[in-house]
Specification:
Shape: elongated
Largest sheet: 8 strands, mixed
Number of strands: 20
Helix content: 25-40%
Length: 526
């Protein structure tokens, strides 16, 4: 991950390859945002006019690179990044605007050694937002690159000064921005330092989740995922227990076993926990970890298999959130349950029409083997409830129906408690993760009635995302506060990168879960 420094020095005095300034939209044209005053002065007060002449207007996501003037700046290049509409006279930029701007700039500076970010940092929250956005935007997954890209060793001073969008494929091939300096942040200010350190940890753990999601399934089997959890547990003093296929059979985990029995790579259930001696609240997080989803016997059609390595994004988010809680020393007990399996068709695979006996004792008629995520989650949810946590949240790339309902950038929030659902929605929005509260209409439960078992694993096709939530609710104790996050849309970005969001695995859900853990640590669960 990019190195981080906080600095109170002037942008004009910074020895960096690039100085990043913000530019906003106003009724009179683009304006240079707070933090860029000395840079504007180096241009004789005409930076905004110069940017406008180059076609920049300050729109969010817009970047314009131009050469520094011959005097007044030590950095050879200036990068102006759009912030959108300028705030009112007594208003400030919201944290998500700053996160996205910093992330956009960091992505545009792939291949650069050091960039100084002279964006508006009026308080600790802004320091955290710029830091988080820059570090998230500087992410790059290069594990399977056969050689380092040429751009990784050159400073931005050797680049063209044209304010044009880079070719994304070339950007992806270059090394990420090596060092981020956040200007205006006070390294000796406790609040500034704490905000930056939190952002640094959070970005590192989101990167962990992204790396897991981007790893191809031939290397990330359930056993390999569990092995990574063991390594992290040792490093960060976490409790860990891994149930292999023998232990799962002995324990009666019929859902996880039923999904994984068609694969040569057997399933795992991982319990990984952060405990704090002064904790007064406990939160259980349950993640769907299908390391590859072919659909099983109900095979997915051509065009729907290629990205199914991402079907373990929920488990990746849970894993990363637990490690984050430990690294931040949160005064809350956070237990993560990673339900790991590979869903494959074979002679031993579960067939449509088979009946599975779940860990809870309930029986499920499997009418569609591609509705497998809810089966592994059901076992893990039941097991999580046995420890009587104050709240349980499961996270999963569960249904295409949720993508159809909310699109590719928003996840759905379902719960057995309206206040808890609203709280999670608010926490997600505050963290910068788009979400939307969804209902669980009770009349949809009838569609899962089975003539041979307690419940079927699918119901009516309309409202399929809501049906899945109702299925999971069947395996949660009635007195347990529970919510379900369906991250099927935002978990894996198949289109172009934007803001601090890369192409591929995004780490969706991590920051929301961490906010929940922080809220629980403060004793503020509903």
């Amino acid at each position: 991950m990019s190195a981080l420094t906080l600095s109170t020095s002037s942008p004009a005095a910074q020895r960096a390859d690039v100085v990043v300034v913000g530019v906003a939209k106003s009724a009179k044209g683009p304006v240079v945002a707070l933090g860029g005053e000395t840079v504007d002065k180096a241009y004789g007060g005409k930076l905004a006019a110069t940017l406008e002449a180059l076609g920049a207007g300050g729109s969010e996501g817009e970047t314009t690179k131009l050469p520094a003037p011959s005097a007044g700046l030590k950095a050879p290049v200036v990068l102006a990044v759009g912030l959108g509409e300028a705030p009112g006279k007594h208003e400030s930029y919201d944290p998500e605007t700053l996160r996205r701007a910093a992330g956009t700039a960091a992505r545009a500076l792939a291949g650069t050694k050091k960039a100084a970010f002279a964006l508006p940092v009026e308080d600790a929250a802004a320091v955290g937002a710029v830091t988080e956005g820059a570090l998230l935007g500087a992410y790059s997954f290069t594990t399977y690159r056969s050689s380092a890209a040429d751009g990784g060793t050159k400073g931005a001073g050797s680049k063209s000064a044209k304010g044009a969008k880079k070719d994304e494929d070339k950007d992806d091939a270059r090394a990420p921005l090596a060092e981020v300096a956040v200007l205006g942040a006070k390294p000796r200010d406790k609040a500034h330092k704490a905000a930056a350190e939190r952002a640094e940890v959070l970005a590192a753990e989101v990167a962990r989740a992204r790396d897991l999601i981007n790893t191809p399934s031939n290397d990330l089997t359930p056993a390999a995922f569990a092995a990574q959890a063991k390594e992290a547990a040792k490093e960060h003093s976490l409790d860990i227990e891994v149930l292999d296929e023998t232990a799962l059979t002995k324990g009666g985990y019929g859902g996880i076993l039923g999904v994984g029995k068609g694969s040569e790579n057997p399933p795992r259930l991982v319990r990984i926990a952060h405990t704090h001696p002064k904790a007064k609240k406990s939160v259980a997080l349950v993640g769907k970890g299908i390391t590859y989803d072919s659909g099983g016997i109900s095979l997915k059609p051509v065009g729907h298999n290629e990205t199914m390595k991402c079907d373990m994004s929920g488990a990746a988010a849970v894993f990363a959130a637990v490690v984050t809680a430990a690294r931040l020393g949160l005064r809350v007990n956070v237990t993560g349950w990673l339900a790991l399996a590979e869903n494959m068709p074979s002679g031993s695979a579960t067939r449509p029409g088979d009946v599975l006996r779940m860990y809870s004792g309930k029986t499920v008629e499997v009418l569609n083997t591609d509705a497998e995520g809810r089966l592994v989650l059901a076992d893990a949810l039941t097991r999580a409830c046995e420890e009587s946590p104050d709240a349980v949240v499961d996270v999963a790339t569960l249904t295409g129906a949720m993508v159809l309902a909310l699109g590719n950038r928003t996840f759905g929030v379902l719960s057995n408690d309206d206040d808890f659902r609203s709280t999670l929605h608010e926490l997600a929005e505050d963290a910068g993760e788009a979400s939307w509260p969804m209902p669980m209409p009770t009349h949809l439960r009838k569609g899962m009635d089975s003539p041979v078992a307690d419940i079927a694993n699918i119901g009516e096709r309309p409202g399929g995302g809501l049906v899945a939530g109702l299925f999971l609710k069947e395996f949660v104790d009635e007195d347990v506060l529970w919510a379900h996050l369906d991250i099927a849309g935002p978990a894996f970005n198949e289109s172009g990168a934007f803001g601090y969001t890369p192409k591929g695995g995004t780490g969706s859900g991590v920051r929301t879960l961490v906010r929940l853990a922080e809220r629980a640590a403060a004793g503020e669960l509903p």
